Amino acid sequence: MKIGLALGSGASRGWSHIGVIKALKSHGIEPDIVCGTSIGALVGASYVAGHLPDLEDWASALSKLKMARFFEINRSLNGFVNTERLHHFLSSYVAPEEQLIEQLDKKFASVATDLATGREVWLSKGSVLEAVGASISVPGLFPAIKQDNNWLVDGGLVNPVPISVCRALGAEVVIAVNLNGDIVGKHLNKNEKPEKSPDKVVNKLASFVTDYTDSLFSFEKDEEPMPSIFEAIAGSVNITQDRITRSRMAGDPPDIVLTPKLSQMGLLEFYRAEEAISEGIECVNRLLPEIKYTLNLL
To answer: Which helix (H) or strand (E) is 250 found in, with range?
Structure first.
């Protein structure tokens, strides 16, 4: 049987895809087809290009300060991501600049959204980095990517878990990793503030992404403060992806669904990679009997 692996969107929760791939491989299960949306496209591309161990090492060493360096406020207001730094990261830990999808050992495709029409776009040919870059372009954070005179943004807006893409590429059995289970509203339930570093400069940079709006706007303090701009974006993305994921999976269910329990992880908490990777491994182990039964490995 040709096995397809559909890696879903979910921002920082997507590091769990690394754990899922590692755990499946440790049990002799390797997909023939890998399709990803957003962070799923990034991790999937790194895997099929042979750079997953390097990506895991980089992600595990990521700190709040290092993550903050990827973000900047620019006058164009087309996104908050430092595109040069992002491009260097992708070419170093995902795939080389010249890598084409057609040259990969496994079939690969990413999903993006046409900003003008709202149509789903499958990227299964051409530059790996362009395919990943388009798929991860979260509106409001990343600038849109132009390809063939079309502006493309995050594929999670239309197909958060690309099961249909795997089947279209020939998968007979699809293992889907859904990062959007039980996430709605969870990022607003955090009552504890992260510990502060003695270094004021470090604190300023590390907290920039999630709470910089507190220094731009002043509101009366109350027991339930207004969500920051990033909390609002995170909540909106979570709601959209949760609803679309439910609808798409009901119409085209996978053969196996893996749902890492990471609802407590914020949209941009990429520095919690070790926690996410570990949960990815545990998620596979919890469903291992079902996986082996479905794949006739018992």
So the answer is: helix 229-251
The Cα–Cα gap between 7 and 4 comes to 10
Contact by Cβ (8 Å): 31, 175 = yes
Residue 147 is inside which H or E element, if any?
strand 145-147
> What pLDDT sits at residue 183?
67
- What is the value of pTM for the model shown? 0.83
Cα 97 to Cα 26: distance, rounded to the nearest angstrom: 30
Q: Dihedral, CA atoms, 62, 68, 70, 76, nearest 10 degrees?
A: 170
Sequence-distant (6+) residues with CB within 8 A of 178 are 8, 160, 161, 245, 249, 257, 258, 259
236-285 pLDDT, tens per residue?
A: 777 877 888 888 888 889 999 999 999 888 878 999 999 999 999 999 99
Kindly calculate the radius of gyration of the chain based on its CA atoms and give it in whole angstroms: 19
In this structure, are residues 65 and 196 in contact, taking their beta carbons and an 8 Å threshold? no
For 204, how many CA atoms within 13 A lie in the half-sphere containing its CB?
5
179: closest CA among 264, 61, 85, 288?
A: 264
* Neighbouring-strand partners of residue 153: 113
Which residues belong to the active site? Answer: 38, 154
